[in-house]
Specification:
By secondary structure, the protein is α/β, with parallel strands linked by helices. It has helices spanning 34-48, 68-85, 94-105, 153-156, 174-181, 197-209, 237-246; strands at residues 3-7, 12-18, 23-29, 58-64, 89-93, 111-117, 123-131, 134-144, 165-168, 189-192.
């Protein structure tokens, strides 16, 4: 099946395309560079594989949660390509995409606690488990403070060693927080990773081979729309000052 995938819900721009025989992947810093790089590289990827928009099964995109600018950029480009070429689009949860990205790296793990930096000292959090060759959503995406993040209880009681993976694009002290809240004996693997566009393609292949997968809904095929858990982009100067005043003072170690 032929796909073009766009994932820029984090600070990394990730693009991918595939046909039945080959695949193309591009990755670079996102942020302000995304708008100037995204479209030329998408066209380059299709050319590399000898594809045209008319031959695509769908245009895939990370719908969020994630970077406000990145999500809007992905949705607008997917919408533009779709409108011009009359090709359907399909959006995927960015935290689920992160889980699939982690399985590509370490397929032996089946339980993924996924975290994306939400800025302002917060995290986007979701938990997913690979069961019977498909993903099950154990915890739907949430917006949490690092100290509020906990792994599903059933995972911490598992006999597997380690029982689950914490996969994240940030290092907001979450690993220390998990050990403190869920007991010093809780074990897990940690992985530093961002959502990848080739993982979007794997999710699409899973979906089209088994459309009853519950992590795709009919709305995901409609007009590309960002999935936001928070409608605030940044803190005001006063809020940032208040946050610094509330933070405990750092102590030096002799």
């Amino acid at each position: 099946m032929n796909f073009l995938a766009i994932e820029c819900s984090s600070e990394t721009l990730s693009l991918a395309a595939s046909n039945d025989l080959d695949a193309w992947h591009f990755e670079s810093a996102g942020g302000a560079l995304t708008s100037s790089t995204l479209i030329p590289e998408c066209l380059n990827g299709l050319t590399q594989l000898g594809l045209q928009f008319s031959t695509l099964e769908a245009i895939l995109y990370g719908k969020g949660p994630g970077s406000f600018t990145g999500l809007r950029t992905a949705c607008s480009v997917a919408q533009g390509f779709s409108y011009a070429s009359k090709i359907k689009t399909l959006g995927f949860d960015s935290l689920l995409t992160l889980a699939q990205s982690a399985r590509q790296v370490s397929p032996q793990f089946t339980k993924m606690l996924c975290l994306l930096d939400a800025r302002m000292g917060q995290l986007y959090v979701g938990a997913y488990e690979w069961i019977d060759m498909r993903w099950q959503v154990i915890q739907s995406p949430q917006l949490l403070l690092p100290e509020e993040v906990v792994a599903p209880v059933s995972w911490t009681q598992s006999s597997l060693d380690p029982p689950f993976v914490v996969v994240s694009n940030t290092r907001l002290g979450i690993l220390e927080t998990l050990s403190t809240k869920q007991g010093p004996c809780v074990k897990y693997e940690s992985m530093h990773l961002s959502p990848r566009a080739d993982a979007l393609i794997e999710l699409a292949r899973l979906y089209f081979s088994s459309p009853e997968n519950t992590w795709v809904s009919k709305s995901d095929f409609l007009l590309p729309t960002p999935f936001y858990l928070r409608d605030k982009v940044a803190q005001t100067t006063l809020e940032r000052l208040h946050s610094r005043l509330q933070s405990p003072p750092k102590t030096s170690k002799l």
